[in-house]
Amino acid sequence: MGVALISSPAFPSVFLFSLITVCLIPELTLAAGITRHYKFDIKLQNVTRLCHTKSIITVNGQFPGPRIVAREGDHLLIKVVNHVQKNISIHWHGIRQFQTGWADGPAYVTQCPIQTGQSYVYNFTIVGQRGTLFWHAHISWLRSTVYGPLIILPKRGVPYPFTKPNNEVPIIFGEWWNADPEAVITQALQTGGGPNISDAYTINGLPGPLYNCSAKDTFKLKVKPRKTYLLRFINAALNDELFFSIANHTLTVVEADAVYVKPFETNTLLISPGQTTNVLLKTKPNFPNATFFMTARPYVTGLGTFDNSSVAGILEYEFSSKTKGLSSNISIKKLPRFKPVLPPLNDTSFATNFSNKLRSLASAQFPANVPQKVDKRFFFTIGLGTNPCDQNNQTCQGPNGTRFAASINNISFAVPTTALLQAHFFGQSNGVYNPNFPISPLIPFNYTGNPPNNTMVSNGTKLVVLTFNTSVELVLQDTSILGAESHPLHLHGFNFFVVGQGFGNFDQNKDPENFNLVDPVERNTVGVPSGGWVAIRFLADNPGVWFMHCHLEIHTSWGLKMAWLVLDGKLPNQKLLPPPADLPKC
């Protein structure tokens, strides 16, 4: 199905995706700093993909869900009403949530989930942010169908720091299971083995012509010659990093995770789950007498099974005045269609080179406020491990009859039964969490060398406690336990600067000499290199409890997650606001 290209009309108060089309983002006509109201009805909807119809959990019956559009400085009130039999919570991925941690959304971290028949109003202001983000469910695997774009336009009168596009379009990647994803993860956790893989990848909810029975469910981007388009890419897939390319076209990267970057050209993007990337597409000067596949497929470094398929949309040029007398449908079908060449599935060299090109603008208007001094340093190992089978299931389907686990500093996060932020705020942390998460591995080892014989993890609900305005340096080290693997790590409540990365074991005596403290990219989700490390810095200037986890959903389910507790500062604007009256209860 096609994309309707609209040239900047007034934006309605609520603008939703249709099931099979995606419209471009028009400019808002209202002034900056206003309050915008949205309503999310969590409801079941029958949806057909791959000739398979099933009932899925949606927002407002839409798949993908409705598009949230606002300007920097706007205040959002989003009422979520749960009409289904599953508990739900919504995370506004990448929103800083200054003083409004109650609106961040991860279940049992900042809130108890919204139960059946209940509602909750997410109430927050967009402070100092503009660009492409997204929202998604943040409980179990419900985000497989509950997700949508969150577009933040600059304040009125503030231009983009790049060529003004003629049109804009969000392109959101996802995954489709013919089975119920909740049943998939339930089975995996019960057996201790890996989950069944998805049946297709999707672009704006559509699998496209490379899959069986899906030619009619194809995302089409219709463009005109000599135009510039801003494409807003979002990876909402559950378990796969993705390469993407448009045949015979060059893309100019201008933003990552809602932060402007120094523009650079590329034929291929790499985008991990939880990441967003804005690019400029300059179309050809004349009608090309061809159509072009827009294709994505996974970048894979781990040893587990994965969905080794490709999703495709189609880039079509609209007929010019010279060709409008022809039958467009018949003529386009007869045109040759070009396919892009994507990197090999395990091309870590491309992944490294691509990530190294991302640099902050570091301009007067958009500075890179990298912490130059560090108050606290942390060294976290991340990777897979194992847990023993329980007594009722003597043989699990994980390695050597164990059950798969994942950990940070060998601690696999145990999800509490009440929300961490509520426990902290009301002084009821005893029995809920321990404030003693280790700053480094308790038992050092050759992290990327031969793995240790003991792959068992410990389990617990532990937090790192930071005083307000602490400057943090965190090194995230991949491990070879059960195989080295790339991990997209997402930090809630903050952006951070990626000051360095490398392969092998981090050397604290040598590697910091090469840190980029001038113009490192600023992100909320970073890929930890397979068999390597990444160093980030951030300022703990946001009071609350903030989740950090791998955005490969299976790794999160296995425990690759932890939380930071940032204490209140002394001034009123440095304190967490009181919880809202309608905050859900566990």
From TrEMBL:
Binds 4 Cu cations per monomer. GO terms for biological process: lignin catabolic process. Residues 43-155, 168-318, 441-568 form the Plastocyanin-like domain. GO terms for molecular function: copper ion binding; hydroquinone:oxygen oxidoreductase activity. GO terms for cellular component: apoplast. It is found in: Secreted, Extracellular space, Apoplast. Its cofactor is Cu cation. Its main location: secreted. Residues 1-31 form the signal peptide. Its EC number is 1.10.3.2. Keywords: Apoplast, Copper, Glycoprotein, Lignin degradation, Metal-binding, Oxidoreductase, Repeat, Secreted, Signal. It catalyses: 4 hydroquinone + O2 = 4 benzosemiquinone + 2 H2O. Lignin degradation and detoxification of lignin-derived products. Belongs to the multicopper oxidase family. NCBIfam families: laccase (TIGR03389). This is Laccase.
